[in-house]
Amino acid sequence: MFDFNKLFRKKEPEANKEESKADEVKKEEPVPLNLSVHVMPKRFLDAASHAKNSKNAGLIILASGIFLLIALGAGGYYYFYIMKPGSPVEPRPEPVVTEENPAAEATTGAAEQEEEAAQIKDAKNTYAAFRNKITSLGSAADYDALVKSQAEGQFLADWSGVKDKALALSQSDQDSFIEYIKTCQPKISEIENLLGGVRDANGKITLTVTSSSFAVSADLMKANGEWKIVSEQGYKCLDESGVPAALAEWIDKKASGVLPESGEQLVPAKDSDADGLTDTEETLIGTDSEKGDSDADDYSDLSELKNLYNPAGTGKLADNPNIKAYANQNFSYNLYYPAKWNIEKVTGGDTIIFRSPDNQFLQVLVQPNANKEEIEAWYNSQFENATTTPAVMEKADADGKTLWRAVKSPDNLTLYLTNLAKEYIYVLSYSPGEGKILEYPNIYQTMIDSFQIGT
Fold first, then answer.
1. How far apart are the first and last CA of the chain?
2. Which of 306, 295, 360 has the alpha carbon at shortest distance from 336?
3. What string of DSSP letters covers 299-321?
4. How far apart are CA 196 and CA 192, in angstroms?
5. What is the rounded CA–CA span in Å between residue 423 and residue 371?
6. Residue 59: its H or E element
7. What pLDDT is stored for residue 186 in this prediction?
8. Mapping DSSP to helix (H, G, I), strand (E, B) and coil, where does residue 443 land?
9. How far is it, in rounded angstroms, from Cα 190 to Cα 128?
10. What is the arrangement of strands in the sheet containing 196-199, beginning at the earlier edge strand?
């Protein structure tokens, strides 16, 4: 035990040390010290504990204040920079909920079926009316007007390819043409109530009827709100001998006629696929003599050629490498001719001959129209012994403006035309040569169809 008395006791000399030690030994009981020990009162001990607790509470309050400041700052940023008070608030789109409604779907399907049935009925009525009107026609011109008003597509293109020849027929041949049209079987009265129809995804209505003796079909499409006939198949039309003949074939035979100066019958050339183009013509323009539609574009080779399109491929007829354009600078005309044919210019330049390798040729002759007559008046003055005046043909541009007017000779091998200025008479002719075989009747017609004055 520590002796506090040593702190205040004087240090004794060495001589007295032994003596002091002896005295210490004799002392058995400690001498009480007059020392006071002070202890901190209890209330101050409790106060210290309370101070520690107060310090912890202060830290909590401080942390809470910092958190509150951060929250207020974040809220202010969102309010002023994200929400942008004062800007219009776009409504949140409502989620689209698709509900299946079998009853509504069934109603829609029924409505579509009713609409299809109504369209088929309208198409049948239109087609029946067209076929019935044919029975009351009086001329090729009447048939032309009917086709123009109610046909489109392939049907109109096929007729356009032969109409000029049909309209140029004599009156007696036009009467025969109407009788030929009326012989086509079956009659509409026989099939009208039997026609069935279907509509495809493009809106085309196909009408069909089949029996043991015939199978007829017709396609119709709407154009400008009206049903138009775009094609028909299966009818059989008979010539005067009772032999089935296609429309183009019948007209070509009538148009070939007889050469008036010799009385010799012209002979149609071979046509293996019966598409109206001779085999020689098909070889010349690069089409297949065994196929009526060589490029498989749903348009016959003949109709494409007649409308100045390329029957051997895509594009216009000018895109066919076997056809070339000829331009005459002296008399300002243009036309198409076979690229492999020779061009011969007669002295004076008013006559041009396009000669084939087999010595048939097409010719253009230009002569003055001294009295500036209309073409029919000029023709009658030149051929006073003619018993009839051929029908007048007209060529118009895309806007319907007439470019030239013409008449054809009775044998259909010569065309006489004049433009609106009536300055010249242009004579376009076809000479089949000594054999009298019509190898190039459609090439001749192409020359006429492509003939333009003043361009």
1. 144
2. 306
3. S-HHHHHHTTB-TTSSSBGGGST
4. 9
5. 9
6. helix 42-77
7. 86
8. helix
9. 11
10. 196-199, 205-210, 215-223, 226-233
Tens of pLDDT, residues 360-369? 999 999 999 9
Query: DSSP class of residue 194?
Result: G
| CATH topology (fold) of 267-272+321-453 | Protein Transport Mog1p; Chain A (3.40.1000)
The encoded tokens of residue 181 equal: 């049209």
Q: Please give the helix or strand (H or E) that residue 231 lies within, else none.
A: strand 226-233
In this structure, what token pair is assigned to residue 116?
Answer: 């299809």
Contact 395, 404 (CB under 8 A): yes
Decide: helix, strand or coil at residue 66: helix
Task: Please tell me the distance from the alpha carbon of residue 258 to that of residue 253, in angstroms, as a whole number.
Answer: 10
Beta bridge pairs of residue 258: 265
Cα gap 357→433, rounded to integer Å? 12
Report residue 18 as tokens.
């032994």
Q: Where are the alpha helices (DSSP H) in 187-263?
A: 188-191, 247-256
At residue 4 the predicted structure's pLDDT band, cuts being 50, 70 and 90, is very low
Q: Is the peptide bond before 368 cis (omega within 30 degrees of 0)?
A: no
Instruction: Supply the CATH classification number for the domain 113-256.
Output: 3.10.450
Q: Please give the angle made by the CA atoms of 241, 245 and 196, to the nearest 5 degrees.
A: 120
Spatial contact of 203 and 222, defined as CB atoms under 8 Å apart: yes
DSSP 127-178: HHHHHHHHTT--SHHHHHHHHHHHB-HHHHHHHHTTHHHHHTS-HHHHHHHH
> Could you state, in order of their start, the residue ranges of all structural domains in the chain?
113-256, 267-272+321-453
Q: β-strand 333-338 against 205-210: which pairing, if any?
A: unpaired
Q: For position 9, what pLDDT does the model report? A: 52
Q: What percent of the chain has pLDDT over 70?
A: 73
Task: Identify the three-state secondary structure at position 125.
Answer: helix
